[in-house]
Amino acid sequence: MSPPACDGIETPSTTTSCCCRCEEEDVVKPDGQNCLHCKIIDQPSSSSCFIRSDKELEKLWRILIASAKGFSIGAGLKGGLSIFSILARFKKTKLSPTQRKAGMVSNGEAIIKAVKETLRYGLFLGAFAGTFSSVDEFIAAVGGHRRTAGWRALLAGAVAGPTMLMTGPNTDHTSLAIYILMRAAVLASRCGIKSKRFGGFCKPLTWAHGDIFLMCLSSSQILSAYILKQDSLPHSYKSFLNTHGGKHAAILQGIKEIASGMPLTNLDGIEKHYKSMGVNIKLDPEMKVPCTIVHGNQSCQSHILSFLRQAYARALPVYLPVYLFPALIVHRQDLLKRPFTILGKGLFGTARSSLFLSVYCSSAWMWTCILFRAFKTCNIPMVAMGTFPPGLALAIEKKSRRIEISLYCFARAIESFFTCMIDAGILPKSKKLNRADVLIFSLSTAIIMHCYAQEREVFRSKYLNVLDWVFGVPPPTSETPRGKQS
């Protein structure tokens, strides 16, 4: 005989009903001390406390893990680039007293600076990942995971953006912020292409060769600025161009003076530079075509071939860490299973990207020489025209990397263009907004993290793998971040 469903007890209202629904019957029955269902409910649940505690620990663990992984990525990438930069410095001779007076740092000082920058970038990405995860968990706990799913990542990404200041309060990152904004715009456009409402407007963005055209536009601004106005370029990027452009500052000054219609003031410096290389030349102060300034006694054809070989040797150390460190992070598991395949792809990618950079730099001098000789003159429009076709070298790269490189260069081209406009007095300089880079970066990360949580299919697999590794796979809106009911 089954136990009675209820053995009524008196309530303050003198009724014997507590409106309990027993499991066996879906009807209202009187309740009592012997109701098995009510006994289960009224018992203090120690297991629920453990579950609640486990959830809190799981959230805290997610934040700590995200912070640690973010730090490892930031420190690994920045540290890897710094190592190759320092190794390149060791190949050079020690600084002379004249160079030290000019402000050049020693190798020891460069190492200390590299360590500091590595830690700063590690802290930056670690703080970004930790802040995003913390805000994400806090909003989900307060507002509910399902109710806040549509906007939670957007707000968390925006709040995490100011962690960029950890790289240094006085360190401007306009180029990085604009690049991240370009990445966010690409993701937003992919979302727009999927949309029925905005698909028609975003259709032109699906042009197959749009990345190469964008690279050509960027190249025209960047290389023109490299020759005519280097102050409009970020310091690190200017150093990069001075290295891979392969020309002495005196040569660039001579080209700038001819293109700007100014008298040549440093012909002696150019002649001394070539003499130090074993080439004796005598430059004409009335020259209209600067080919002799660019490559001395060499013909245009032989100069391009010799420059290409030298440029390729300079490009290899640049791309080796670009392919090596992501392979260690993204393909860390496959690296143990099939190391030769992964390393082979990395070496092939290094060789191809190095070829792209060397052809890009070589063709820049080739096209300018062709135009200067064809029109027998050198001016600013001619420089801009001659630096447009080198962007075609991007076709050497594989398709997935073309958009990355073109966006990277386009971000720097935009910054350089507006700097030139401000310096020329065409655009006013804003004095109220000192850290526009932080604002732009926060807006960009808000868009990116929202797309990551809501529109995962718009990401490339390699970026999605990295984000999943750091933050964990975002669950469906019907589940909590740990796949349990909220």
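the 2nd protein, sequnce then structure:
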Amino acid sequence: TLAKMPCPVLNYHAGIAPKYRGMNGGYWALASGDQGNFGTTVHLVDAGVDTGGVLKQARGKPKTGDTIASYALRQAAFSRDICVEAIGNVLAGRLETIDPGLPSKQWYHPTIWFYLWIGLTKRVW
């Protein structure tokens, strides 16, 4: 269990936590009309789903032609620096968390009908 680990455990999450915890965070931000929170989070791991203390966040923009299949790759591309910084901070003994000041919600894969509806009405694929 995590309690037995002699070191902090970090997670890279393809979504802005805690608002877009769980699956497909970038997709859900776009589908919700929340383009400003298309991003990623590096956080400490706890017993919850993407609920650990937030260490770093990065925000970016999808490119024309991106879809639910490529959003996470796009997010990883603009998040390299925060991953390196978070690991460096942890190795230096700095575990400074930030409070994003956002509501918390866990998201799952969209149903096929929701995905098609959002794709057709909002052009978010």
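The radius of gyration is 15 Å. The chain has four helices and five strands.
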